[in-house]
Structure to design on (208 residues):
């Protein structure tokens, strides 16, 4: 009998910022975002104070451009978005491109910073550097929102259909066979042991 195949849907969130100079073409950039496979989980238009910008960019404190950066980012409205998809942090970084692409657009002509940026400072867009940075930045921009993994309806339905439902049916079938005294505890233990997100031994073969 063919072994069951298991996989984990791992959807990350990352923060995207449309800086003051590109807010007016928000719809154009959003179209690129959606066509790149992202879901826009949350979006808001805000204008930060210089003090808020200083807090957000605290990692850059003491650098020569820090004052100019906080002044620029507080000079007008920005649009902040929580984006979700598989490997969101790395994928969004690849789409916007490095800051250097502004001065050397030929190095990555398709990236958004090469297209919309004008200087290293006014490079059009921001993306979180890492998953840790994304969590901090999302909490900063969306303080009342939890950061649990976001799964699209289509992904959820596919996962439930392929893995969760068959696992539950198998577990309930075994429950009926064993007829334990404490059926809830027995089923909970069985589901932990047969969690489709974790490798397990199947018919003497080790699931890798």
């Amino acid at each position: 009998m063919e072994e069951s195949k298991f996989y984990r849907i791992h959807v990350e969130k990352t923060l995207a910022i449309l800086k003051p100079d590109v807010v007016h073409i928000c719809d154009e950039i959003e179209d690129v975002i959606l066509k790149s496979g992202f879901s826009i989980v949350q979006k808001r238009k805000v204008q930060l104070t210089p003090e808020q910008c200083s807090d957000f960019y605290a990692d850059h404190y003491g650098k020569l451009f820090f004052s100019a950066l906080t002044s620029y980012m507080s000079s007008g409205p920005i649009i902040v978005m929580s984006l979700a998809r598989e490997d969101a942090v790395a994928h969004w970084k690849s789409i916007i491109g490095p800051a250097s692409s502004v001065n050397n657009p030929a190095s990555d002509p398709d990236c958004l910073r090469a297209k919309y940026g004008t200087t290293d400072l006014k490079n059009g867009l921001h993306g979180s550097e890492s998953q840790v940075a994304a969590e901090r930045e999302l909490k900063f921009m969306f303080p009342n929102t939890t950061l649990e993994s976001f799964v699209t309806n289509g992904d959820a339905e596919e996962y439930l259909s392929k893995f969760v439902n068959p696992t539950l049916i198998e577990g309930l079938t075994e429950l009926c066979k064993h007829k334990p005294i404490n059926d809830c505890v027995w089923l909970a233990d069985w589901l932990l042991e047969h969690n489709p997100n974790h490798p397990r031994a199947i018919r003497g073969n080790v699931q890798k």
Remarks:
- The chain is about 40% helix and 15% strand.
- Confidence is low (pLDDT under 50) at residues 1-8, 198-208.
- Strands lie at 11-18, 39-46, 78-86, 125-127, 201-202, 205-206.
